[in-house]
Structures are given as structure tokens and as C-alpha cells.
Amino acid sequence: MVTIKDMAEMLGISTTTVSNVIHGKTSQVSPQTVERVQKLLEQYDYVPNINARNLAQNQSKIIGVAIKSRMDKYPNILADPFFGELIGAMEAEIRRQGYFMMLYISNDIADIMKYMSSWNADGVLLVGMVHDDFVRIRSKMKRPMVLIDSYLPKEITKYINVGLDDEAGTYEMTRYLLDSGHRRIAFLADNMAGVDYIRYKGHQRALLEYGIEPSEENLIIIRPGEEEKESSRREILERSKNYTAFMTCSDYYAATIMNYLIDEGVRIPEDLSITGFDNNTYSRIVRPALTTVDQDVACKGNVAVKTLLKLINGEKVKEREIRLPVELVIRDSVKVLNNSGEND
């Protein structure tokens, strides 16, 4: 492969001049010289040695992204529109900033830690981590880190998380259902930890404001595993007879449950209203179109990357919890009831 020294000798100029043209530092180089160097670069298909340059700058220019998945829920987590959009947005911003993304997905935190430690990344973005995961990772890695959609106990310090005002989203959606006449509302999630737990708290807060005592009897835990999926769906179908509205923690579950119930003869929203959370592709392609809580996933990814780069560059980030806003998107999956809780 032709080297910078070789090209400098061919053109009768210094290696510094050739290097400056390669790296776009042409303010002190004549247009004629720039053109001569660029023609030679094209002639020899010259590719800069990025690794050597980064080594000289004591940087890898790599941003690591680690996602802790749940094998019972996601055979392929990137098939979920939320994660696909989030990863796409982060990769685009990382590339725009002149870095490269390395991605690792596993349900085993020990596995994630092993591979992350071998990356030599300048910084790491962590998705789907609970507080124990973060404590273990932080004890082993000293690189700058930013969490996405994580809720950590107050006693854990020195972390930065980019997420949503999740509680406000479910609070406002519950108020919307209550204002629409619904009183028999079930809350559906596949766990009571992290994001889903915070969303459940928003739901409870709205109920209390309307004088309704929250009850765990109205909490339906979805079992997403292949062995349990059919029995979970049958349970949901049977319990749907006791409610006028289902409030789910994601558009994925809302769309999945809606399609199953419709196949079983349940009319949406005539017999049962359903709401989601995310406002992703699922909410727009199901029929009836889904009433949901909107979040800007691309913005979340961009903010997380930019926050991490501030840490990498030695800047201080004052805000430990960065909460992005949400808003209701009202479509066709909620029926307005009369005061008695029956269909108009």
C-alpha cells in the first residue's frame, strides 16, 4: 500500500502537507496542491489508517452500546420497533460525531461485562439495566457511561440516565380514560420493575386523585414466554370481561392483545378499550388505530449520545436524570362511556 511518505516524494512536497490534505486541514495549502494530492489519493485508492491516528490521540473513537435483553420476551430484540429506532438513531448520531458504534446484546450481565471490557471503548451507553447491573459494570469499568431508561435507587450516585417522564405519561392516559367514563381499568405489564413499575405508579396516582383506591386485582402480569404465552392470552381474554379498558405498558403488547381479542370475538373499542405507550409503528398500523403515549425515541438516542460525548470530552453534566417529555396521542381504540360506565 502506498504511504504518505511515498506520495510526498512523488509530488515533491512534505509529508505534513499530504497528511493535512488527507485529514481536511487545507487552509494553509494551495488549491493546486490540494488537487494534486487528491488525484494521487484516488489513483492509489488510499485509505487512511484510522487506528494509527486514534492510537496517537489516545482514543479508540469507539462508543460501546450494551443492551440487556430478556430471552423470554425477545427472540430478536431489534425486531421491536422501539429498539430498532433507538439503535438506528444512536448509530447515526455516533457516526455523525466521528465515532464508531459497537453493539452487544445479551440477557447475561456477566457476558455483557466480559465483552465490554475488551472493547477499549471511549464511552458506553447502557440500555435495559437495573441497579445491580449498573453497580457491577461500574465496579469493573472506569469509562464514561450513560444509562438509557433506567431507574436507580437514590443511594446510588454518580450516574446519568436519559429517559422519559414515564409516570406523567401513564398518569395523563389514566386521567383520559377516567374522563371518558371508565372506572373498571386493568393495567397490563410483563413485570413490576424499572420503567413498567414507574408507569404503574403514574396510573395509581391518577386513580387516587379520582377517589379510586388502586388494587392489585386490577394488575395483570403478561407472561411472554413461548410456553406460557397461550395460557396468558386465555387468562387475559377471560379477565377482559371484568373491565371496560385495558391500559398496557407498550404499543407492542397493546397491538398483540388487541389482535388476539378481536380474533376471539371481542370488539375494540365497543366491548373493551385499549391504550398503549410509545406511539411506534404498531400503534399506527393496527385497526382501530391505537390511542397511546408518544415518546420521541430518536431524540432519546441523540440526547444519550451527546451526553456521553460531553463526559468523554471532560465536560460536566449537571443533570443526573434527563427526563424527556411525553404527550397523549388520541386515536380510535378508546370508547367514551356514559356516567354509569356503560357504552353510550
In short:
This protein is an alpha/beta fold.
Count of beta strands = 12
**Separation, N- and C-terminal Cα atoms:** 78 Å
Mean pLDDT: 89
Whole-number radius of gyration?
26 Å
Shape: elongated
Number of helices: 13
Largest sheet: 6 strands, parallel
- Enumerate the strands of the largest sheet in spatial order, edge to edge or round the barrel: 2-1-3-4-5-11
Query: Helical content, roughly?
Result: 40-55%
The ordered string of helix (H) and strand (E) elements is HHHHEHEHEHEEHEHEHEHEHEHEE
Low-pLDDT sequence parts: none
Strand content: 15-25%
Secondary-structure class: alpha/beta
Oligomer: single chain
List keywords for this structure.
12 strands, alpha/beta, 6-stranded parallel β-sheet, 13 helices
Protein architecture, described:
The termini are far apart. By secondary structure, this protein is α/β, with parallel strands linked by helices. The chain is elongated. The relative contact order is 0.12. The model has no long low-confidence stretch (mean pLDDT 89). The chain is built from 13 helices and twelve strands. A six-stranded parallel sheet has the order 2-1-3-4-5-11, sandwiched between helices. The chain has a four-stranded parallel sheet with strand order 7-6-8-9. Strands 10-12 form a two-stranded antiparallel sheet. Helix 1 packs across helix 2. Helix 9 links the parallel strand 6 and strand 7. Helix content is 43%, strand content 15%.
